[in-house]
# Entry
Amino acid sequence: MKCFGEHWGLEFSPEEIQTARANNGLLSLELELSRACNLRCIYCYAESGLPMANELTLTEINSVIEQAVDLGARKIIVLGGGEPLMYKDLFQVIDAILAKGVDADLFTNGMLITEEKARALYERNMAVVVKMNSRNPSIQDMLAGQSGAFASIEKGLAALRRAGYPDEKHTLGIETIICRQNYDEMPDLWIWAREQGIIPYVEMMTMQGRATEHPELEVSIAEIKALFEKLSIIDRERFGTNWTPHPPLAASQCARHEYSCTVTACGDVQPCPGVSVAAGNIRDNSLAEILRVSKPIQELRNIRTMIKGKCRECDFGEYCYGCRGHAYQVTGDYLAADPLCWLEKT
# Structure
């Protein structure tokens, strides 16, 4: 039984993270391929839909992969920015990542997963995370901005299951954004995922992109706290897993700023999708140089000593630094205390 104090949710050890930070290196990289998307999710941080005019070429993407691996990256997470399966060279990108001997994860809305693509992902030992916000068709379709989205996502999940997902070597997850419309069903969705062997990535919504146009999506801090506590009880009593509820992820934590970064579809390097500050562009400088000299990257690499406000004095500071995306989007300061955190110093 793992708990918060045992670094629940960290995919790399504290020693590995410390080494990557000290060397201005990477352990993982989040890579957007395009902003093209077949959905118009009303909470989308990237406001995806149409491709950008100046998106990276395949040659440039391969260069980013090579640079990331040279810096120590052991995993590259393909975000798409939009929908990765709309990118015509997706499997060339995946194969380029795997050829470097590093892991590759894919985040997708699942709608374009066919039997053939599911088998191709399985054969490559890809971890796949499908964006699913509701088991209610009308709610899922509304949040996705498209009628029929739920049915298409179900077909994609079924194809992944027939291909063999999930098993010991093939992780399957769902990514869920908490909002007013799906709040009440979160415990049932969580139980459904756990019982299917699917990892639920349930996270608080960052108010950026299209979400800023939809205040009706917001859920209060008190309600988020109550939900996380309920999910924690479910995990402890039904699934034998113990964790301390805290934002922004249920049953997990974020330490990505100490060892990772995001490269957007146009080549901007950001600390993460939520901290939408361009630290540089890979068309102008190498990834190594950007990591070494960028103020936001360096400050967030040292977030545990740079953080401000109540987060600086928090009893959980050794394991948690809140959500930097929340801090930046709400206050304009990525070093500020997480304004949506309910934890207090005891």
Q: What stands out?
A: The CA atoms of residues 115 and 158 lie 9 Å apart. Residues 1-8 have pLDDT under 50 and may be disordered.
